[in-house]
């Protein structure tokens, strides 16, 4: 039994031929326009990213300040508690609940 040979081009070959024909007929200004859009879009993305990162830097700086302040306040509170305990030991006649 003979196999029948198919002499028609495959789908990939047809697609390639169509792409080549489209590329031949596409106006040059279209490529320039596309490249311009891509350049503008890239610039906008870069600007947006810079603005976001600048904002995050500011927020992170404020967060660091808050954490440092919390540490200082925690130390001050501990110091105050120690002082109160010392005073309560020196003056046991004054109940702490009346203060």
Describe this entry's structure for a reader:
It is a single chain. This protein is mostly helical and 99 residues long. The chain has a domain at 54-80. It contains 2 helices and no strands. It starts with 10 loop residues before the first helix and ends in a 9-residue tail after the last helix. 0% of the residues are buried. The mean pLDDT is 86.
Instruction: Specify Rg, calculated over alpha carbons.
Output: 38 Å
Tell me the strand percentage band: under 5%
Number of strands: 0
Class by alpha and beta content: mainly alpha
* Order of SSEs: HH
Cα(first) to Cα(last) distance is 111 Å
What can be said about the biggest beta sheet? none
Low-confidence stretches: none
Tally the helices. 2
Counting copies of identical and different chains, the oligomeric state is single chain
The coarse silhouette is: rod-shaped
Name the helicity range: over 70%
The overall average pLDDT, rounded, is 86
Notable characteristics:
99 residues; mainly alpha; 2 helices; 79% helix; 0% strand
Give the SSE map.
Elements (H helix, E strand, L loop, with lengths): L10 H15 L2 H63 L9
């Amino acid at each position: 039994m003979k196999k029948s040979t198919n002499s028609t081009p495959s789908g990939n070959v047809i697609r390639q031929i169509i792409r080549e024909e489209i590329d031949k007929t596409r106006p040059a200004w279209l490529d320039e326009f596309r490249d311009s859009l891509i350049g503008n879009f890239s610039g906008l993305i870069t600007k947006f990213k810079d603005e976001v990162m600048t904002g995050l830097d500011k927020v992170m700086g404020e967060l660091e300040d808050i954490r440092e302040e919390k540490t200082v306040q925690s130390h001050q509170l501990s110091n105050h508690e120690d002082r109160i305990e010392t005073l309560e030991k020196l003056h046991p006649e004054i109940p702490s609940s009346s203060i």
